[in-house]
Amino acid sequence: MLGTFTYCNPTKLYFGEGAVKHLSDELPKYGKNVVLVYGGGSIKKNGIYDTVVRILKENGKTVVEIAGVMPNPTLEKLYEGIGIARKAHAELILAVGGGSVCDYAKALSVSVCCEEDPWEKYYVRFEEPTCKIVPVGCVLTMAGTGSEMNAGAVITNHAAKRKIGHVFESETVMPRFSVLDPAYTLTLPRYQMIAGIYDIFNHICEQYFSGEDDNTSDYLSEGLMRSLLHGSRIAAKDTQDMEARSNIMWTATWALNTLVACGKSTDWMVHMLGQAVGAYTDATHGMTLAAVSLPYYRHILPYGLKKFVRFAENVWNVDPAGKTDEEIANAGLDAMKRWMKELGLAMNITELGATPDMIEGIADATLVMDGGYKVLTREEIVKILRESL
């Protein structure tokens, strides 16, 4: 490893069936006023809401709720939550849901005490918090984003047609604790499960496809990808397979808790392209990533050929015998395409609601990153988006 880095991850995880009981270990550490954040109401149907509220009450907490957090949390919803949390004098924000709910909770945590407009401060100027940060805890119900153990928060501004993520530098933004019970993911619709699986996979790819050195992080990434491929195929056939769902959930956490980014420059252009598509279509995040991935990777393959060859051999078991490096690398992407189709992922942005007349606007909304094998020009972004149609 040639990179230099500092690694710190303070999030305490409680993993496994029945892990929610450990809320009672954590809640006494925080003040009385808890803001409970959740999404569209599925946690009320499956009983998770009742369990969490009961534990909160048993621990003497005063609970105020922010319900209806959408899959792509909006700026308007963030403003609404700021008002509720301020009025409640929030001392803990407890997110119960998937990655979007956890993202929202973190965005809220740095905004409650902020005297400036959080969109301008955190998502336009990308500044760090200078105010008190309200601590966050998570009870995860969907595996995918890794938001339960990182400092990232994605917010969508529909007026500006921008969907932007800010990965905060301070570990104080990370959840103080997270409860991960794989059983909570079993009631998730298959479409959302599959989207989450690809989100996990692409998180690893975004970090893997960078750098030229022999990096331990890449070996970890390959192991995580192989585990995910194995578990995903089982879960796709039997969504109730507990072992597969447990492995998927655990892989999701390690895919984006900064571990496999150590010593890496990281890429993140698939996310920039996918989030721009999402800003225009409001499509499910993991599906937007899937729809743009292959055109992007085929475009940058010549610039990172050695890594794509390694990807093909070590992740997809491509036999290199009698093949050129280019043929090996493309065979790896072909294997990836077959897996994606096997799962039922979105293979183009048209099926997500994008139209040719949106391409220029989506290109304008795409942030350009410089950590991967090729810094894209606007013309290249347009080309990749058109190929993604």
Walk me through the topology.
Blueprint: E1 12-15, H1 23-26, E2 33-38, H2 42-45, H3 48-58, E3 62-66, H4 75-88, E4 92-97, H5 99-109, H6 118-124, E5 136-140, E6 152-157, E7 162-167, E8 177-180, H7 190-208, H8 216-237, H9 242-255, H10 269-281, H11 285-300, H12 305-314, H13 325-343, H14 359-364, H15 378-388
Parallel strand pairs: 1-8, 2-3, 2-4, 4-5, 5-8
Antiparallel strand pairs: 6-7
Helix pairs in contact: 7-8, 7-9, 7-11, 8-9, 10-11, 11-13, 11-15, 12-13
What keywords describe this structure?
389 residues, alpha/beta, Rossmann fold, Dehydroquinate synthase-like, alpha domain, 2 domains, two-stranded antiparallel ribbon, 15 helices, 8 strands, 47% helix, 11% strand
Characterise this structure:
It is a single chain. This protein is of the alpha/beta class and 389 residues long. It folds into two domains: 12-185, 3-Layer(aba) Sandwich (Rossmann fold), CATH 3.40.50; 190-388, Dehydroquinate synthase-like, alpha domain, CATH 1.20.1090.10. The protein is built from 15 helices and eight strands. The strands form two sheets. Strands 1-8-5-4-2-3 form a six-stranded parallel β-sheet, sandwiched between helices. It is globular and about 70 Å long.
